[in-house]
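Suppose you are handed a protein chain with no further information: no name, no annotation, nothing but its sequence. What can you learn? This example shows the usual starting point.
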Amino acid sequence: MSAQGLTVLVVDDDPGNIAVIGDLLRSDYQVKVANSGKRALQLARQDPIPALILLDVMMPDMDGYQVLEQLKKNSITRDIPVIFVTALDSQRDQVSGFRLGAVDYITKPIMSQVMLARVRTHLELKTARDRLADQNAWLEAEVTRRMAENDLTQLVSVRALAHLAETRDKETGNHILRTQAYVHTLAQRLRHHQRFKHLLDDHYIEVLTRSAPLHDIGKVGIPDSILQKPGPLTSSEWEVMKTHAALGAQAIEQAERDIEQPVEFLAVAKEIAHWHHERWDGSGYPDRLMGDAIPVSARLMSVADVFDALITERVYKPAMSLEKARDVILQGRATHFDPDVVDAFLQDFAMFREIAARHRDVSN
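A reasonable first move is to predict its three-dimensional structure. Written in structure tokens, the prediction is:
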């Protein structure tokens, strides 16, 4: 901004001082004048907002110190630099002014060249600060935009990978959306539970929810003859199907090695993919983990995944009612599932019902 475009507010109860200072500045700046502290506060808040205020100290009703205090309390005026113009020249007066936030002190009688030099200096400093603030604001906005863009890219990538597995298994439908919402619901319910509160904060729940769609990514490695078989699997076919847990974990681990730095959501996704078929009593697969040895992320997904499988129709089985599926989950408490996770499921069963309805599979 050019100097001519900058506005200076001159505040003095003496008309003669206002005239002298105004005449001195008008060739270079836009000038506003006020003959009282009250009027100064009004003009300071009106467009154009002054870039600088020259403020007399000794005024009736409201002195310069009181005016400055009010300016600093207002978000519109707090950053306007203020130069005191006064006949008071003691160190105590100057310290008082600087303590309140004045940027400079000009003593009367006024020396025109001194005033012009100091006005110019402080306006240049104000302009530089404003430009830096604008640049910082732009940088912050750009960082926020790029983070949001990266966040969206990550979400889309995760969803794309999950749908890749979904295309191999024609009957999963909205399974990844439902299980993702179930896991989020369980995590929110358990976040204040004594056993889980050390882990389930806002950040972890966000990471967990984001990771959940990758729980069955390993199915990409299962042959079509098994994955799409229109009926129950033989014992040997079932052994092949069970390898999808390890295959998913291995694929995610390879992705971690490729990027050469840890990514939190991949670490959680690997846990879920690897161990969401483990059972609380140690009879699950692939590693027969037991109890708290099973990661929390996998324990939550276990309940979500089994519940959704029960209520979903397959060519080899009808869909179970939500109430019957709820009873099956309850029967698995402390054998198949972490008992506290089952309790959370029961507490939020109405939410599970709503999620199932919202993301129900639609027949073609």
